[in-house]
Amino acid sequence: KEQIVLPVDAIAQEGAEAFVFQQNGNHFDRVPVQVIYRDQAYAIIKNDGSVFPGDIVAQRGAHQLQMALKNKSGGGADPHAGHNH
User: Fold this and answer.
1) For labelling, which of 4, 10, 40, 68 has a CA lying 20 to 30 Å from the CA of 85?
2) Which CATH number fits domain 4-71: 3.20.20.80, 3.30.420.40, 2.40.420.20, 2.60.120.10?
3) β-strand partners of 68
């Protein structure tokens, strides 16, 4: 099985979980991945079907994308802010 090597900046970390942002049309989906090895420059992720060789993933800025997603989803803010019931 082919291993998938990505720049370390392509991996977002949240607790024990790792994610990449995979292009899906005109947006990116957050996809959980298993990091087998990581050094200062590159990360090797398990080829388990979550991402395939040739898929387009954000090559850098994954941490910033993760933070933006967290802020967008409320991340500790009032869940009812901006909603009229």
Assistant:
1) 68
2) 2.40.420.20
3) none
